């Protein structure tokens, strides 16, 4: 988060004096921020990637505004009503800036937005695979809010504009550390290679503590809101266990991490870790007091022999289901994929026939 020189106005909202050009840039900014998120919702695609695109495109619109301002085509800085100014944030009129400031960056500092985009993409995408889309959105905005609120809390009388997605970015690091610290994800620390999440998150956190101490403790001046970074990190770290409850992956699971693997292989790997051994179970017909059909004996034997892998078990279970009918009601048998492995069951009434 950047905290530049004050650009305040005496009026309630600067939008009241906007001309056509200013409204054009403001509405275009809203479109490029909300558009990717709406697309992700409709098409069930990655929210992490969509938020990365939103932040990047929002910055590009700000750069274009700078060019238009240099040509004298716009008069007002379009985002005065959406940047965070701590001294006004306690008013209900400006609560929205705790979130909207996260989609703004200094148009003169490309390295700042680039650093945020790298974290949002390289940390956000695997974290979303761990959490699922909706839970990822919750963590993202918890980190964003935590960063903005921390900056407001420690600078409540300041009239300086503050903005940036750093609070949300550090929130992703904090959340990942709280949930799956043993994961390894590609990240540019000296070399672009896989690094443990613990190393990445704690290194960034330690550096921010040091920078915050140098700025606040020694009286130095910085245009970077280090307390916002720490606030986002801590807020998301504390919230992650609650948000992730009931999610697709158990906290702390050590399976190498999702990066670089397809969603199918991740699902199969998770399923395999929860599957029971079929060799220890009686077949469902014998267990229910029925005679084992002759046509399924060979399939059942092959299933027991090679059903240790999730993909193989699914294939043989599906074949077994196609060969069978419910011994209770005579209806067909279906195969259902569950988190703890595939099962076969009566298509009419699962209680009639269910295995394993």
How would a crystallographer describe the biggest sheet?
3 strands, antiparallel
- DSSP summary, beta strand count: 5
Mean model confidence by pLDDT: 87
| Order of the strands making up the biggest sheet | 3-4-5
Distance between the termini: 53 Å
Low confidence ranges: 3-11
What would the principal axes of the Cα set say about the shape?
elongated
Task: Describe the structure in your own words.
With 356 residues, the chain is mostly helical. The chain folds into 2 domains: 14-261, no CATH class; 272-355, no CATH class. Helices cover 55% and strands 7% of the residues. It has a 3-stranded antiparallel sheet. β4 and β5 (354-355) form a beta hairpin. α1 (20-43) runs antiparallel to α2 and α5 (110-122) packs parallel to α8 (166-179). The chain starts with 19 loop residues before the first helix and ends with a strand. The model is unreliable at 3-11 (pLDDT under 50).
Topology:
Blueprint: H1 20-43, H2 47-70, H3 86-89, H4 97-100, H5 110-122, H6 124-131, H7 133-154, H8 166-179, E1 184-189, E2 191-196, H9 197-217, H10 226-244, H11 263-274, H12 284-287, H13 294-306, H14 310-323, E3 333-338, E4 341-346, E5 354-355
Helix pairs in contact: 1-2, 2-5, 5-8, 6-7, 7-8, 7-10, 8-9, 8-10, 9-10, 13-14
